[in-house]
Amino acid sequence: MSPITFLKEVREELSRVTWPSKEEVIEATAGIVIFCIVVAVYFWALDFVFSELLKLIIEK
């Protein structure tokens, strides 16, 4: 396959792609950011609880 044929096929394939709207991209991005924040807070809370428990165990 020649590079020119390949590029023509790539262009044809890209024209068939259903691209998301701006609103869909913003909504998906917001969902991902919120999910990441929730997971970060969850792990921060776990880390805090376990570190405090470890401090209690070590002090005794």
Automatic annotation (TrEMBL):
Compartments it resides in: Cell membrane; Membrane
Segments traversing the membrane: 28-50
UniProt keywords, alphabetically: Cell membrane, Membrane, Protein transport, Translocation, Transmembrane, Transmembrane helix, Transport
UniProt GO molecular function: protein transmembrane transporter activity
Keyword Cell membrane: yes
Gene3D superfamilies: Preprotein translocase secy subunit (1.20.5.1030)
InterPro entries the UniProt entry points to: SecE_bac, SecE_sf, Translocase_SecE/Sec61-g
Example of a GO biological process term: protein targeting
One Pfam family from the record: SecE
Primary residence: membrane
Topological type in the membrane: Single-pass membrane protein
This protein's GO CC annotations: plasma membrane
Keyword ATP-binding: no
Family, similarity comment: Belongs to the SecE/SEC61-gamma family.
Subunit structure: Component of the Sec protein translocase complex. Heterotrimer consisting of SecY, SecE and SecG subunits. The heterotrimers can form oligomers, although 1 heterotrimer is thought to be able to translocate proteins. Interacts with the ribosome. Interacts with SecDF, and other proteins may be involved. Interacts with SecA.
Function: Essential subunit of the Sec protein translocation channel SecYEG. Clamps together the 2 halves of SecY. May contact the channel plug during translocation.
Name of the protein in its database record: Protein translocase subunit SecE
Protein species of origin: Desulfurobacterium thermolithotrophum (strain DSM 11699 / BSA)
